[in-house]
């Protein structure tokens, strides 16, 4: 794992990010898969509350946050699966 500078297209700037090698991805993949299942369960509970019409503003905001997290985890897992 190391920090790299990735150029941002058409700007002349670069963005610093963390790079993982294949072995590190293999190690982290099960952790991300477990986390995804946990976040999906939380999201399902909030969706049930939403469908029941009893959702508070705070729960709605939390649901949006959970949706973003699950999308990011799903994307990472899809990228990492060919490495397995």
Characterise this structure.
The chain contains two helices and two strands; from the N terminus they run ββαα. The protein is of the alpha+beta class and 84 residues long. Strand 1 and strand 2 form a beta hairpin. Helix 1 runs antiparallel to helix 2. The two termini are 18 Å apart. The model has no long low-confidence stretch (mean pLDDT 94).
Placed side by side, the strands forming the largest sheet appear as 1-2
Low-confidence stretches: none
How big is the Rg? 17 Å
Question: Which structural class should the secondary elements be placed in?
Answer: alpha+beta
What amount of the residues lies in strands? 5-15%
List keywords for this structure.
14% strand, alpha+beta, 84 residues
How do you describe this structure in short?
This protein has 84 residues and is α+β, with helices and mostly antiparallel strands. It contains two helices and two strands.
Write the layout of secondary structure elements.
Blueprint: E1 2-7, E2 14-19, H1 22-52, H2 57-80
Antiparallel strand pairs: 1-2
Helix pairs in contact: 1-2
């Amino acid at each position: 794992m190391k920090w790299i500078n990735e150029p941002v297209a058409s700007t002349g700037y670069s963005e610093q990010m963390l790079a993982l090698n294949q072995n590190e991805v293999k190690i982290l993949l099960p952790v991300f898969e477990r986390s995804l299942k946990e976040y999906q369960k939380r999201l399902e509970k909030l969706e049930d509350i939403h469908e029941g019409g009893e959702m508070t503003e705070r729960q709605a905001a939390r649901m949006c946050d959970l949706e973003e997290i699950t999308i990011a985890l799903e994307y990472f897992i899809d990228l990492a699966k060919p490495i397995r």
